[in-house]
Amino acid sequence: MDVRMDTAHLQTEHGPRTQLNRRYMVLGATMGLLASTVLIVTVVFVTEGAHNDLPKVDPQSREFRGVWVATVENIDWPSNMSLSTEQQKSELVAILDRMVELNLNALVFQIRPTGDAFYDSQLEPWSYYLTGRQGAPPSPYYDPLQFAATECHKRGIQLHAWLNPYRARHKSANYTLPATNMARRFPQYAYVYDGYIWMDPGAADVQNHTYAVIIDVVRRYDVDAIHFDDYFYPYPAGGVDFPDNATFRAYQSTGGTMSKSDWRRDNVNKLIKRLYEGIHAEKPHVKFGISPFGIWKPGHPEGIEGFSQYDSLYADPKFWLEQGLVDYLAPQLYWMIDPPQQSYPALLDWWLDQNPLRRHVYTGNYLSRIFTSGWPVSELVNQVKISRERAGQMSLGNIMFSMKPFRDNISGVVDIFQSDVYGRPAIPPVMTWLDTQAPDPPTGVKAGTKEITWNRDQSGVVRAWAVYRQDQENTWGLVQVFGYNTTSVSVEAGTYMLRAVDRMGNESTDVIVKVS
Ligand SMILES: *[C@@H]1O[C@H](CO)[C@@H](O)[C@H](O)[C@H]1NC(C)=O
Ligand SMILES: *[C@@H]1O[C@H](CO)[C@@H](O)[C@H](O)[C@H]1NC(C)=O
Ligand SMILES: *[C@@H]1O[C@H](CO)[C@@H](O)[C@H](O)[C@H]1NC(C)=O
Ligand SMILES: *[C@@H]1O[C@H](CO)[C@@H](O)[C@H](O)[C@H]1NC(C)=O
Ligand SMILES: *[C@@H]1O[C@H](CO)[C@@H](O)[C@H](O)[C@H]1NC(C)=O
Ligand SMILES: *[C@@H]1O[C@H](CO)[C@@H](O)[C@H](O)[C@H]1NC(C)=O
Ligand SMILES: *[C@@H]1O[C@H](CO)[C@@H](O)[C@H](O)[C@H]1NC(C)=O
User: Fold this and answer.
1) Pfam families given for it (predicted)?
2) Is 282 helix (H, G, I), strand (E, B) or coil?
3) Quick one: which ligand is closest to 191's CA?
4) With 90 as the cut, is the pLDDT of residue 360 above it?
């Protein structure tokens, strides 16, 4: 999606948990604290299966709020490939701190834009966009992906590792590829197309290599998800067909009977299926999400016009949803709400209807339009609201392309989002097909003067702590989410509910505490 701003296809384009056996924790240490001068009332009560007084939690406290941080062409990070290690780190930290301010909960971080690596890899060279020379490690040395994982998780933010499966070099840069780049390892399957170097998705060597790269990331890094965007076969250019005749002929010579288009789609589908299974076999909690172009085929739904990813990128996200080959789909609905040819709500409703297995759908939104095309910020705010209104149909959040407007507060976007749609924090929704284990509740919870404290997690399972405040009787709003390492919060007087949150977003039973 990183090039769609300046390419031809632009014209067309481009639970809440219900816990039945609820148990309010009996809090220890209450008696001892009562003796001190601080004002404490710790509520201690136990109810089992009392359906009628389950805490009612603000539904917006469950929402995926992601942002893409593109590294290709230094779009979002690092802002320049000549930055020092310290500058790179402080830029990434500033991005994460801004995400916390904005109550965003997932970083979609591009770690392999062009057959390269923003991490220590034995399989591929260091990225050109990191140091200005493909193959050159950052100096002084650090591992950006490792750094990002630590800094995200400290803040209770998910890290989705975004990789481009087939692109070996972007057309905007003609640097020399080192021998470790996939285009030089498999030169017979590396084609110059529209100024890019693009690997042949039909070649087993390419499929195996991309698969190995991704599984290596899953194995060695604490990522929460693997993420693809809209790039499969390249966007067609200049009426030129992708030059894969030799590979197709090889397929036919082994008895293959599919049409070329079906064969191309099958090549993509096979990689996706293999990845879905391989990722979950390696680490069941690592999700696989794809953010395809926003239109499947023109005419779906009726009235939609534009580019067909099915026929031209050989991407079939409808099939992936039907087959359960993705944990989430984030269709890039990069158009405005009103124009009927690519109507945001009409397309969203269509995608939500293609989801028989009820996987998560997070809309991709084109935030950068506020500076590339003068969209008002209100357009994006309204798009979030439209996605949110459909939460009951698995429309469970948004991913913004890209971080830059938030990073630079373009058009005052930060304050507008804070004061409207992202005023309160949210926890990413749970994928019930991946996990049914809740973490243990917080221990050692104590109310102090304008403060709540609790014990550090010993289990290693807790990813975040969720703090809810009682708004009205038995109605709770999520007011803060902290990373696993936090053990206290300053609060106003009131009644609070604390829950531990695991890496899948599942929450523990409640600990209720009253702060005077
Ligand atoms: C990086 O900095 C150099 C020198 O200041 C500048 O020429 C170049 O355009 C910058 N690149 C980007 C991507 O901003
Ligand atoms: C890189 O080379 C390709 C042709 O191989 C060309 O289309 C493209 O414009 C070049 N890009 C730059 C930035 O020079
Ligand atoms: C690709 O990987 C598959 C599965 O591991 C293997 O059977 C096949 O031989 C590999 N193909 C090539 C060309 O390496
Ligand atoms: C690829 O094969 C098709 C069908 O046989 C043919 O029309 C086309 O010219 C071939 N392309 C190239 C680049 O050889
Ligand atoms: C963002 O920009 C607006 C408008 O210029 C300004 O009022 C606000 O203070 C800025 N916010 C941040 C967090 O920089
Ligand atoms: C969270 O864990 C609990 C307890 O294991 C389980 O019953 C519940 O289904 C999980 N919640 C979700 C939304 O998966
Ligand atoms: C978490 O807290 C412990 C104890 O203070 C500290 O040793 C550790 O470095 C912290 N972890 C991170 C990632 O900051």
Assistant:
1) GHL10 (PF02638)
2) helix
3) 2
4) yes
Ligand positioned closest to the Cα atom of 441 = 6
> Can you tell me which atom of ligand 2 is nearest the CA of 192?
5
- Would the CB of 357 count as within 6 Å of ligand 2? no
Structural domain includes residue 5 = no
pLDDT, residue 53, reads 63
Residues 460, 386 share a domain: no
Can you give the residue range of the structural domain that contains 192? 64-420
Q: Is the pLDDT of residue 29 over 70?
A: no
pLDDT digits (tens, 9 = 90+) for 38-58: 333 344 333 333 344 678 898
Contact 483 CB / ligand 7 (< 6 Å): no
* pLDDT category of residue 1 using cuts at 50, 70 and 90: very low
Protein residue whose Cα sits closest to atom 6 of ligand 7: 485
Q: How far apart are CA 41 and CA 33, in angstroms?
A: 9
Show which of 360, 394, 420 is a domain's final residue.
420
Average pLDDT along the chain: 91
* Ligand 6: nearest atom to the Cα of 432: 14
In whole angstroms, give the CA distance from residue 55 to residue 498. Answer: 12
Q: How confident is the model at residue 100 (pLDDT cuts 50, 70, 90)?
A: very high
- Using one digit for the tens of pLDDT, what is the confidence trace for 150-169? 999 999 999 999 999 999 99
Atom of ligand 7 nearest to the CA of 150: 13
Tell me if 494 CB under 6 Å of ligand 4: no
Q: With contact defined as beta carbons under 8 Å apart, do 330 and 365 qualify?
A: no
Query: Is residue 427, in this structure, part of any structural domain at all?
Result: no
74 and 177 part of one domain: yes
- Is 177 found in the same domain as 91? yes
Nearest alpha-carbon partner for 500 in 449, 459, 472: 459
Domain match, 111 and 128 both: yes
Residues 158 and 129 in one domain: yes
CATH number where 43 lies: 2.60.40.10
DSSP per-residue codes, 422-438: TSS--BPPP-TTT---P
Nearest atom (ligand 4) to Cα of 245? 1
Closest C-alpha residue for ligand 3 atom 5: 208
Same domain, 372 and 224: yes
Residue nearest to atom 1 of ligand 2 (CA): 174
In whole angstroms, give the CA distance from residue 398 to residue 391.
11
